[in-house]
Design a protein that fits this description.
The complex is a heterodimer of chains A (about 45) and B (about 240). The longest helix of chain A has about 40 residues, at about 5-45. Chain A is mostly helical and about 45 residues long. Chain A contains one helix and no strands. Chain A is rod-shaped, with a radius of gyration of 20 Å. With about 240 residues, chain B is mainly α. Chain B has seven helices and no strands. In chain B, α1 runs antiparallel to α7, α2 (about 40-65) runs antiparallel to α3 and α4 packs antiparallel against α6. The longest helix of chain B is centred in the last third of the chain and has 48 residues, at about 190-235. Chain B is elongated and about 80 Å long. The chains are: A mainly alpha (about 45), B mainly alpha (about 240). The interface between A and B is medium-sized, with 24 and 33 residues.
């Protein structure tokens, strides 16, 4: 029962999975950058 | 964990994930009734397995936090708990999304309120509430309140797992650990499932470590900011 629609759903599922994970990794990278910025601000006299 | 060890771990996880992707899309046999859409299974099941593992880690860390909340280990336990809950929500969201994308061509609907889907959605809501509670509560109370919620929230995990055994559901009956421990899964599909399961668990562990380090850095920053505020207040008072 492979239809074009079902193959689209299969590809969408795989792509969406990695978009969610990549988005979360970017969120973590932004979090580290924010913490680093705040530490630098804290060191200022 | 040293930078070199982390980099090596990341490279190994990337290789494992790529291998898992190839196994899932090219090597595993095509399912007779559903066709290629069944290949979503190789991401759907490992996503939930990783989510449940993260929720179990969250439970253990919350119990440790509640038992030792007046000791120096409490901050580390709290960091483990919040990191695991956040990752659990991410993997559970992926499980829900891949499930909906699988359901539409096979069942003709995106969603149905059967026992499995409803209990999973409730699980997702519980841990989203956990994360919101941490963000919105007063700073001192948040970890204790969240830890208590986590202990009660975890009750839903075995309910989700057993729901397809306890009730009639639109969701298929268990194919991996079915009746009398038998597997309904074609032997040709097992390697792809196991490799993706290992790949997702390793990826989850790696990202969990990064999230844990971030939480610890935030805790240290908050402490340093509080100390600086006290010092400034004292200096002004003098």
């Amino acid at each position: 029962m492979d239809t074009v629609r079902s193959l689209q759903h299969l590809h969408a599922a795989y792509i969406l999975t990695w978009c969610v994970h990549l988005g979360y990794v970017l969120f973590l990278v932004r979090g580290f950058a924010q913490v680093k910025r705040e530490i630098e601000e804290l060191r200022k006299p | 964990m040293k930078q070199a060890t982390f980099t090596m771990g990341a490279v190994l996880v990337a290789i494992l994930l790529s291998y898992g992707l190839r196994e899932a899309l090219q090597v595993a046999p095509t399912e007779a009734t559903m066709g290629n859409i069944q290949r979503i299974f190789y991401y759907h099941v490992p996503s939930y397995a990783t989510a449940f593992t993260m929720f179990a880690v969250n439970l253990v860390a919350s119990l440790v936090y509640l038992a030792r909340r007046h000791t120096p280990q409490a901050a580390a336990a709290d960091a483990v708990a919040v990191s695991a809950a956040e990752l659990g929500v991410i993997f559970c969201s992926v499980g829900l999304l891949t499930g909906m994308l699988w359901a539409k061509p096979v069942w003709g609907i995106w969603w149905t309120w059967d026992a499995r889907l409803t209990s999973t959605f409730v699980l997702w809501l519980i841990y989203v509430s956990y994360l919101m509670l941490r963000r919105l509560s007063a700073a001192g109370q948040a970890p204790t309140l969240a830890a208590a919620l986590a202990v009660f929230g975890f009750v839903d995990v075995p309910i989700v797992y057993m729901s397809i055994r306890w009730w009639r559901t639109q969701h298929p009956q268990p194919v991996i650990f079915g009746e009398q421990g038998q597997s309904g899964l074609d032997p040709g599909m097992v390697p792809a499932l196991l490799i993706n399961l290992a790949a997702f668990l390793c990826y989850g562990a790696l990202v969990f470590w990064v999230r844990y380090k971030l939480e610890r850095a935030r805790q240290e920053l908050n402490e340093a900011q509080a100390l600086k505020s006290i010092r400034l207040a004292r200096a002004e008072a003098c």
